[in-house]
Amino acid sequence: MTEGIPITRHPAPPEQVERIRAAVREAEQLNDSRLARPDDAEGLYALLSEPKVNAPIYSLPRPLNVGNVRKFIEDHVAQQARGEGLLFVRDAGGGQIMGYSDIQVWPEWAAGEIAGGLHPSLHSKGSGTQGAAQTFTWMFEALHLNLICETASLENVITQRMLDGMGFHRMGQVTSRRPDGTTRESLVWEMGRDEWSAAQRSRPS
Ligand SMILES: CC(C)(COP(=O)(O)OP(=O)(O)OC[C@H]1O[C@@H](n2cnc3c(N)ncnc32)[C@H](O)[C@@H]1OP(=O)(O)O)[C@@H](O)C(=O)NCCC(=O)NCCS
């Protein structure tokens, strides 16, 4: 949990709030990922156990074990029913999960955040940046958000470079709280829908 984000808080009109909640409830697929189900607990635990995946992410269950990963998935099923959160997994078949995306939505501010990770065998080849760009577009278009707010640890150079490179704006620093109560300092970035759309239109194809 991170108190104090998003930094920018413009109350959304009630119709947009309801549209966002409905879109979250109806979501089924994000790029090549599907919604996580409780029986993904073992496969997701295997992915999250990779130190290169779990070290930079404050929002993962702690202690990290299969039972808590199952609760994490079940909690996201409940978040989706409220129209406030989604958990997607990239299912490689045979119980192997190669990536996950954890989307938090603040319908009242038409804002959202995504945390996630890829299997280490996929890191540093450009696929994270490509997948994140598709996901941001999806969050603005399919979920009707106006603002995306992202955080990264002070040591997470890859994510920092990714967000700076995409034109996100640095908004300062906040304290993120892990599920076990320990804290971590996080840098914060934001990007608005109109600026994102304009940047995508002007990208060379
Ligand atoms: C974050 C993550 C999704 C990024 O995906 P990726 O495919 O590894 O990253 P990319 O290859 O697209 O690289 C992104 C930027 O980092 C740079 N980079 C990649 N590997 C790097 C490394 N080992 N050291 C320094 N910079 C690196 C790239 O050059 C690129 O910057 P540039 O556009 O300025 O050249 C992935 O690394 C990951 O899953 N990490 C673990 C979990 C995590 O940190 N999640 C984010 C916080 S929620």
Automatic annotation (TrEMBL):
Pfam family, one: Acetyltransf_3
Signal peptide start and end residues: none
Domain (N-acetyltransferase) ranges: 34-169
SUPFAM superfamilies per record: Acyl-CoA N-acyltransferases (Nat)
InterPro entries: Acyl_CoA_acyltransferase, GNAT_dom, N-acetyltransferase
Record GO terms (molecular function): acyltransferase activity, transferring groups other than amino-acyl groups
PANTHER family, A to Z: GNAT FAMILY, PUTATIVE (AFU_ORTHOLOGUE AFUA_3G00765)-RELATED-RELATED, N-ACETYLTRANSFERASE DOMAIN-CONTAINING PROTEIN
Protein name per UniProt: N-acetyltransferase domain-containing protein
Lineage: Bacteria, Pseudomonadati, Pseudomonadota, Alphaproteobacteria, Hyphomonadales
